[in-house]
Amino acid sequence: MTGNLVTMGAYIGAGLACVGMGGAAIGVGNIIGNFLSGALRNPSAAAGQTAMLFIGIAFAEAFGIFSFLVALLLMFAL
Amino acid sequence: MEQFTIKPLFGGHELHWYTITNQTLWMAIAVVAIFTLLVLATSARAMVPSRMQSVGELAYGFVRNMIEDVAGKDGLAFFPYVLTIFMFIVTCNFLALIPFSFSVMAQFAITGVLAIAVFLTVTVTGFVRHGAGFLKLFWVDAAPAPLRPVLAVIELLSYFVRPVSHSIRLAGNMMAGHAVFEVFAGFAVVAVISPVSVVAIAGMYALELIVAFVQAYVFTILTVVYLKDALHPGH
């Protein structure tokens, strides 16, 4: 057993931060699923809403990226 | 990770603001590529477009329709700016997928500058067009009166967080994609799992092609959405 405690803590923290990506995954899945169920009911209105779909995905996904960033900071910047 | 480090091209280790680095090189390549594409696309001006001209018209029409749909006709004043942003990001993202190239958009400094430029443009445009009326953006008339000050604080916070999330989304996505390539490439040296990892890299590459375009699209459309706020404040 070598290495120090701070590095160990940082690596455990980086792993824990990645749990946050699961939340982003659920959010993106929710958006796509709801979009698809709406689009299949009224396909003619779906084409006009793809921009909103991507904006929604972008907002949901941003938080997954934040947790990824925290993991990166813990691993390389500490 | 080594693939994201910025190195001076012509020897030395010190970085100054004028040092020519691999980052400068790939940004210059992107600019030359865009310039070549758009000049070749528009120089013929044929009635029946050639292949090159179709690509140029596709990019032009794509961004123009996006602005018209989201921000309306008066948003078209910002069309050159938005097209520049879109072409630069999408070209840098695709160039970064060439092996041994450098991912410009994985640098938080680059996306940060782009996002701050958008933030300043939106704020200045809002105040120039509407004066103090731009502050109505933070005052939600549709909400019940006691809630309005609370909502104003939240809206103000979310307004100033915009450049942060705007830049980190793009850089984080590109960085994550390239880091995944590196991790799977690391698995490829282990003989037992190397076929799996090579197939996985091929699959990830296809996914990254989509991500490269979608992230450029998302950055552009968020720019247009923010511009819409500046042109038509109030909910």
**Measured distance between first and last alpha carbons of chain B:** 44 Å
Pick out the low-confidence regions of chain B. none
* Computed Rg of chain B: 21 Å
Instruction: Give the overall average pLDDT of chain B.
Output: 89
What is the CATH topology classification name of chain A? F1FO ATP Synthase
Helicity level of chain A? over 70%
- Beta-strand portion of chain B reads under 5%
Q: So how many helices of chain A?
A: 4
CATH class of chain A: Mainly Alpha
Helical region count of chain B?
6
Q: What class would the helix/strand composition of chain A place it in?
A: mainly alpha
- The coarse overall form of chain A would be rod-shaped
- Name given to the CATH architecture of chain A: Up-down Bundle
Number of strands of chain B: 0
Range of helix content of chain B? 55-70%
Quick tags:
A: mainly alpha, F1FO ATP Synthase, 4 helices, B: 6 helices, 69% helix, globular
Structure description:
The complex is a heterodimer of chains A (about 80) and B (about 240). Chain A is built from four helices and no strands. Chain A is mainly α and about 80 residues long. Chain A has a single domain, classed as F1F0 ATP synthase subunit C (F1FO ATP Synthase). Chain A is rod-shaped, with a radius of gyration of 18 Å. By secondary structure, chain B is mostly helical. Chain B has one domain. Helices cover about 70% and strands about 0% of the residues of chain B. In chain B, helix 2 crosses helix 3. The longest helix of chain B is centred in the C-terminal third of the chain and has 40 residues. The mean pLDDT of chain B is about 90. Chains A and B meet through helix 4 of A and helix 2, helix 5 and helix 6 of B.
